Amino acid sequence: MALHQRGRRYAITSCNNVLMTNEDTGSERALGRLTTAMVRGVARPRILVGGLGMGYTLRAILDRLPRTGRVVVAELLPAVVRWNRERIGHLSRHSIDDPRVRLQITDVVNLVRQPRAWDAVVLDVDNGPEWIVQRRNLALYGREGLTRLLRSLRPGGILALWSSGRHRPFERRMRAMAVRWRRYRCVSRPGQPTGPVLYIARPPTRSSG
Fold first, then answer.
1. Cα–Cα separations (whole angstroms), residue 165 to 105, 169, 171, 196
2. DSSP labels for 43-95?
């Protein structure tokens, strides 16, 4: 992965593919706002964010999180953390320095092993279930990975997922598992026919075991 700068424009790329820029961050911010809206009313919300990126999702969460809330950010790549500390922290108003945040350089999978640990798990580690940045993340979107993610939620908790577009196989998988879910489409420019998609998922009402 690499960080590029041209004037005020920043981009993070992987194998010459642009993963994110600071030019159109509406969907990342929407993911953060939607997450905090879904846990509103929880006195001491605990949120796990998988993927730091440029910090926009985290900043949107922090802007609406109560003082009693806590966010753990799991970022797999030390370089991304270093860039946020040394080069691009100003883009998200230095969100990782917020006292409510604990940053861990680890795979998000390592933090969802304990059941009923989180009020929200936010996944922004790939471009969605279809375009995987880290091949190991394929397991997150399969039946076993989804089961583990949903079991890590406290009662009433949510799984929030950013995707570059609608992913019908993933939707069919959730239906087959009786997962309760909803899809939100983000349109950043008027007349734009397609755009990023946000998925909000909750465990089945009755566990199938």
1. 27, 12, 12, 5
2. SS-EEEEE--TTSHHHHHHHHH--TT-EEEEE-S-HHHHHHHHHTSGGGGTSG
Task: Kindly indicate the confidence band of residue 19, based on its pLDDT and cuts at 50, 70 and 90.
Answer: confident
Confidence bin at 135 (pLDDT 50/70/90) = low
User: Based on the number of CB atoms within 10 Å of its own CB, is 184 exposed (0-12), middle (13-18) or buried (19 or more)?
Assistant: middle
Look at residue 136 in the predicted model and tell me its pLDDT: 60
Domains and CATH numbers, the chain: 24-202 (3.40.50.150)
- Rama region for 41: left / alpha / beta (φ>0; ψ in -120 to 50; rest): left
Ranges 114-128, 134-148, 184-198: which has the least confidence: 184-198
Separation of alpha carbons 137 and 107, rounded Å: 9
Mean pLDDT of the chain: 90
- Phi and psi of 205, rounded to 5°? -60, -40
